[in-house]
Design brief:
Distance between the termini: 37 Å
CATH superfamily of the largest domain: Periplasmic binding protein-like II
Number of strands: 10
Radius of gyration: 22 Å
CATH class of the largest domain: Alpha Beta
Shape: globular
CATH topology of the largest domain: D-Maltodextrin-Binding Protein, domain 2
Order of helices and strands: HHEHEHEHHEEEEHHHHHEHEEHHHHHH
Number of helices: 18
Largest sheet: 5 strands, mixed
Strand order of the largest sheet: 2-1-3-10-6
Structural class: alpha+beta
Number of domains: 2
Helix content: 40-55%
Length: 441
């Protein structure tokens, strides 16, 4: 499954600056009413809408099959869906979207990474969906699962609906836990640290580590806010992630690494390597996307028993959103906007939402999905996904700053310094905060 994070940290700054500098797109005449013969011709033709998305391989195939089903059952609308490269921050799809906005020729609908929503909403080019959602029998805000809408809002208004959504969860090796006489996964960081020490055994190439932190800004968001800290000041003008409460979980993780109870992976494939370490039984616990559960299921097979659990609490528990949402661009004609909204409501209705979730492993989005017999059977077969649904009640929005993606560049570099090179946590994050302030100013 495609990962739900920003891959290219080096492109974050450029993306943030380009996006916040975008003006209104040039008029292309698309909103003008048809007249005469053109109106007559249009009435007999389906309304064509374009849909850009950024998940490839089997996920792209799933999208194309569902779009085909929609087109067959809605003869008055034709959705043309195209894969545009990765939707993650700095990814090709987002770069193309920014360029299309600047040129005044965006698609009708686009998949937008959850942390990039402020970038695009602040551009003024997304259609405000608030009134449409409140009057919808399908996508009324109260119909969605608690927490799932946190990334779809900007300054109190809805600009998107959930699409491919995920959360990070704790993965743990039940077989190793039983061997170490640990009855249940840790519920807080003191327990995790104690369990990691008990679970560590062996040496050299045969060593099993108790824990493996993911050297990535996504679980860092969780660490900062669950530790009792904050990422940015309330006015979004100053980085605050270098304050003591924001550092407590990072310091615990680094201490486990330095003491030999945890390992880290480095390099461009660090995330895949970490997931593979768990599959290989080399680590007893890690924090990974629920989107990796399918890969873990296939990779582990019957080698050992495993499960997922809520992320360990610090002072509190704050779960960051992951994945992407669907937005409509204002540049579309009224007919296209109406068709786009019809398509989005169809996609998010329980029948299609359950189909998408069970085929891909992404989270369901509607409350009604959980009562669907197909999804209930899916959870019986894949109980690890229950954790992700339970975590939604703790989901917390990321800072709604159009410059947020640019803030994450120095953060990612700082995390690599802390875990890959053993640099001091407080001093390194303070330097990252100073760099982030320059992007916020």
């Amino acid at each position: 499954m495609k990962r739900d994070r920003l891959w290219k940290s080096g492109a974050l700054l450029a993306l943030g600056l380009v996006a916040t500098g975008c003006g209104a797109p040039a008029a292309n005449g698309g909103g003008q009413a048809a007249t005469g013969a053109s109106r007559a011709a249009a009435s007999s033709q389906p309304v064509t809408i374009t849909f850009w998305y950024g998940v490839g391989t089997t996920l792209s195939q799933d999208i194309q099959q569902m779009v085909q089903a929609f087109n067959q059952t809605h003869p008055g609308i034709k959705v043309v869906a195209t894969y545009q490269g990765s939707y993650s921050g700095g990814g090709e799809e987002q770069q193309k979207l920014l360029a299309a906005i600047k040129a005044g020729d965006p698609p009708t609908i686009a998949q937008i990474e959850v942390h990039a929503m402020p970038v695009f909403a602040a551009s003024g080019q997304l259609l405000d969906l608030t009134n449409l959602m409140q009057s919808s029998s399908v996508d009324k805000p109260s119909n969605f699962l608690p927490g799932i809408l946190v990334s779809t809002q900007y300054q109190g208004r809805y600009y998107a609906v959930p699409f491919n959504r995920s959360v990070p969860v704790l993965y743990y090796n039940k077989t190793l836990f039983a061997k170490a006489h640990i009855a249940s996964p840790p519920s807080n960081w003191a327990q995790l640290a104690a369990d990691a020490k008990k679970l560590t055994s062996g040496a050299g190439s045969n060593k099993i580590y108790g824990f493996e932190p993911l050297v990535d800004w996504w679980p860092w968001e969780y660490a900062v806010e669950s530790g009792g800290g904050s990422i940015l000041s309330p006015d979004l003008k100053r980085a605050t992630f270098d304050q003591p409460p924001a550092l407590s979980i990072l310091e615990t993780e680094q201490s486990l690494v330095k003491q030999g109870y945890a390992k880290v992976e480095t390099g461009p494939n660090y995330w895949d390597l970490m997931t593979q370490d768990f599959i290989n039984g080399q680590v007893a616990m890690d924090i990974d996307s629920i989107g990796s559960a399918g890969k873990v299921t296939k990779g582990v097979g019957d080698k050992f028993q495993w499960g997922t659990a809520l992320l360990p609490r610090g002072k509190t528990l704050a779960v960051p959103p992951g994945g992407g949402d669907l937005a409509i661009f204002k540049d579309a004609t009224p007919a296209q906007q109406k068709a786009a909204w019809t398509f989005i409501q169809w996609w998010t209705a329980p029948k299609q939402s359950v189909q998408w979730s069970t085929e891909t492993g992404y989270l369901p989005v509607q409350k009604a999905d959980l009562n669907d017999p197909v999804y209930q059977a899916y959870l019986e077969k894949h109980p690890q996904y229950r954790t992700a649904i339970e975590e939604l009640q703790y989901e917390h929005p990321s800072p709604a700053s159009p410059a947020y993606l640019a803030v994450l560049q120095p953060v990612q570099q700082a995390l690599q310094g802390i875990f890959d090179e053993g640099k001091p946590v407080a001093a390194t994050m303070h330097q990252a905060a100073e760099a982030a302030d320059q992007n916020l100013g």
